[in-house]
From TrEMBL:
ATP binds at N178, T204, L205, G206, G207, D208, G209, G237, D238. This is Ribokinase. Gene3D superfamilies: 3.40.1190.20. InterPro entries: PfkB_dom, Ribo/fructo_kinase, Ribokinase, Ribokinase-like. It catalyses: D-ribose + ATP = D-ribose 5-phosphate + ADP + H(+). Substrate binds at N9, A10, D11, G37, K38, G39, A40, N41, E135, D238. Activated by a monovalent cation that binds near, but not in, the active site. The most likely occupant of the site in vivo is potassium. Ion binding induces a conformational change that may alter substrate affinity. Catalyzes the phosphorylation of ribose at O-5 in a reaction requiring ATP and magnesium. The resulting D-ribose-5-phosphate can then be used either for sythesis of nucleotides, histidine, and tryptophan, or as a component of the pentose phosphate pathway. It comes from Sulfitobacter pacificus. The gene is rbsK. Pathway: Carbohydrate metabolism; D-ribose degradation; D-ribose 5-phosphate from beta-D-ribopyranose: step 2/2. Its cofactor is Mg(2+). It is found in: Cytoplasm.
Length: 290
């Protein structure tokens, strides 16, 4: 089972002829709201990969729709609390050329308490996975608690913060970063990835696939991406991570789990949107990439 301490956002898209300048008021040509947040994306991806996923998080009174949608997508929502602040959201302005600017509000994602986390993890079983990102609070407490309870801890270090990584790294079994984040981590620690106290590190490389650094086995291995037409990369990394952890939870060896994750991520970049368009396992298994 996967316990995901993760963000839940409303992604509010405003489609405009051009991006607003200082003091300018514009009428949007179109509006679209979708489910987002790295945590929600990863929960949906793992659930669609046939894993049982319990989401640990919070929304405001305005967030019932987001919880209902997670439940519809197969995520266990019993540990999503209701907070006295607005649900986290991203207001995204998109112009006719596809350029954008974004305003983020953490909202209820920063209202998660240690009591909420502890109540959820008290139901976990040794060998389960705890998955986290850097869009909620409580990560250090969750990682330490999970390790004490015998869970395997996966940390997707995004949005990247060297301080946040260093607070949890001694409790992490699998660290997932993109290429930029990996370089930032090396710069901040002054150490090679192979010197970090983490058994396994996976670095996503966009169109170049990914690299697996096994510090336990003292090996490094690269995996190519699958050929696809890229439409939108939003949510592809979250889809990759959710599928990766789901594969490991189902007992796959790392190589097989990475292959599944790369296939899911490749399908995702061919779709517009975030959590609502993450491919399900049948899509991934049936797609011919040749």
């Amino acid at each position: 089972m996967i316990w995901n301490l993760g963000s839940i956002n409303a992604d509010n898209f405003y489609y405009l002829r051009h991006l607003p300048g200082p003091g300018e008021t514009l009428a949007a040509d179109r509006f679209q709201q979708g489910l987002g947040g790295k945590g929600a994306n990863m929960s949906v991806a793992a659930a669609r990969a046939a894993a049982r996923v319990v989401h640990i998080g919070a929304v405001g009174d305005d967030g019932k729709w987001a919880v209902d949608r997670l439940l519809e997508y197969g995520v266990d929502t019993q540990h999503i609390a209701r907070a006295d602040v607005a649900t986290g959201h991203a207001n995204i302005n998109v112009d006719a050329d596809g350029e954008n600017n974004i305003v983020l509000y953490a909202g209820a994602n920063h209202a998660v308490t240690e009591r909420m986390i502890g109540a959820a993890l008290a139901e976990a079983t040794p060998g389960d996975f705890l998955l986290m990102q850097n869009e909620t609070n409580g990560q250090a407490y969750a990682a330490q608690t999970a390790r004490t309870l015998g869970l395997r801890v996966v940390y997707a270090a995004a949005p990247f913060s060297a301080e946040a990584v260093q607070e949890v790294i001694t409790h992490v079994d699998l660290l997932v970063l993109n290429e930029v984040e990996a370089a930032q981590l090396q710069a901040s620690t002054g150490a090679e990835l192979s010197a970090l106290p983490v058994d396994d590190i996976v670095i996503t490389l966009g169109g170049d696939g990914c690299k697996w650094v096994s510090n336990k086995a003292k090996t490094e291995e690269s995996f190519p991406s699958f050929p696809v037409e890229v439409v939108d990369t939003t949510g592809a990394g979250d889809t990759f991570t959710g599928y990766l952890v789901a594969g490991l939870d189902r007992g796959f060896e790392m190589v097989k789990a990475l292959d599944l994750a790369l296939r899911a991520g490749a399908l995702m970049v061919g779709r517009h949107g975030t959590a609502d368009v993450i491919p399900d396992l049948k899509d991934v298994q049936d797609h011919d990439f040749s």
